[in-house]
Amino acid sequence: MWPSIVPALPFCHYAIRVAKLRSKTYPNQLKTLGDHLRQCRIDRKLFQRQVAEILGVHPLTVVNWERNATTPPAHYREAIGTFLGYLPVPANGMVRRR
Length: 98
What we know:
This protein is mainly α. The chain has a domain at 33-84: lambda repressor-like DNA-binding domains (434 Repressor (Amino-terminal Domain)). The chain has helices at 33-43, 48-55, 59-66, 77-84. The longest helix has 11 residues, at 33-43. The N and C termini lie far apart (82 Å).
């Protein structure tokens, strides 16, 4: 029999708290609407499919927007603005139109 139970690590009641490193996919600079979407999604800990449900689009559409392969059509601007909490404007203040 053990005379007394002593924890193996007597200092185990201490907790080390450090900031979690950002993922490699986290945008460093917000240059495009896709960068804004990706940053907001990662900050809220959402999956791309969850964002797609919120915006009412297919999950691959969100993937393409975040990769800057395509840009969102104008009729999604309101839904994107609601999701982000703001509507990003390009640095030059100009909105590209077709």
